[in-house]
Amino acid sequence: MQAFKGRFRLKPAATTVGAVVLVLVIYVGFLAIYRMLDHHSGPESADLDLSRDNETVVVIDLQDLRTVNNRLDAEVVVLPAKTTLDAFGLLNADMSVRLVSSLDYGERHFPRGTLPAAMDDTLVATGDAQSWPFDEYSTGNLRAEVMVGNGVGRRPVPARIEVIGSLGGWRVSTATSQAPAGKGDQTTIRLVRARGTLAFDVGICLVLITLPTMALIVAIETVKGRKKFHPPLTTWFGTMLFAIVPLRNILPGAPPPGAWIDQALVLWVLIALVVAMVLYVEAWWKQSD
């Protein structure tokens, strides 16, 4: 039996090469999977229509999502209908724009003879940050109301919303429906975490689980006397202990403090590492006698 084992024992060089190849295969495979899962994060608007022959287009360019505050920052650009422009491409009448369901609910006024400038706006995106990384966010029904003229001559003009831009780590989709009372179309923006980001989250969680597992194995084997005590390993334990919080904070869209991952994983990882350090100190105490 010993001869059989010795015949098939790998040489150190072959073991090293095999380990390197395995790591490279896993690395390349992870990158390929991440790329396939995260290939698209912007709104599903390949047929984005910015034509404005008969209606004004209100373009919402997504900038940032603040999950804890349920706020979606965006830049709003108004593209006036050609019927509202003069021969020089400027407004032929005063224009006011109102984005209904915006946090900054109010009218933006653009005087005659000018062009509407881009403006920053904040939308309410409702969701539960505590359910990270499976949290989803959705705006209310957004509707653009555009008026031209002044006083009694003021009248509404047709307008629609188009959503552009992308947010890192999020898949953005839009849905358009008919607004009540025949007030045109309304648009809803929905944001879901990208699948590639979820894969990265799983990888970090596996690292968090692996660290205390390794520490406990080493500590238990040492306290039982099966392995010798090595003083430099105490530094290794301390390094792992202080690495947990930075690892937790690099999670994409880091969840708010006290989220379920802190209660179900991070806290127990810290406890396991502290227990491993205590066991290793006990092993030192026994072997020092």
Provide a descriptive summary of the structure in words.
With 289 residues, the protein is α+β, with helices and mostly antiparallel strands. The protein folds into three domains: 1-37; 56-193, Immunoglobulin-like (Sandwich); 197-288. Helices cover 37% and strands 26% of the residues. The chain has five helices and eleven strands. It has a seven-stranded mixed beta sheet. Strand 10 (170-178) and strand 11 (185-193) form a beta hairpin. Helix 2 (12-37) runs antiparallel to helix 3. The radius of gyration is 30 Å and the shape is elongated. Mean pLDDT is 82; it is low at 1-5. The chain crosses the membrane at residues 12-34, 198-220, 232-251, 263-285. Keywords: Membrane, Transmembrane, Transmembrane helix. This is Transmembrane protein. It comes from Mycobacteroides abscessus subsp. abscessus.
Task: Please specify the SSE layout and strand pairing.
Elements: H1 2-7, H2 12-37, E1 56-66, E2 71-79, E3 95-100, E4 107-110, E5 119-126, E6 136-139, E7 143-148, E8 155-157, E9 159-164, E10 170-178, E11 185-193, H3 195-223, H4 232-249, H5 260-288
Parallel strand pairs: 1-9
Antiparallel strand pairs: 1-2, 2-5, 3-4, 3-7, 5-6, 6-11, 7-8, 10-11
Helix pairs in contact: 2-3, 3-4, 3-5, 4-5
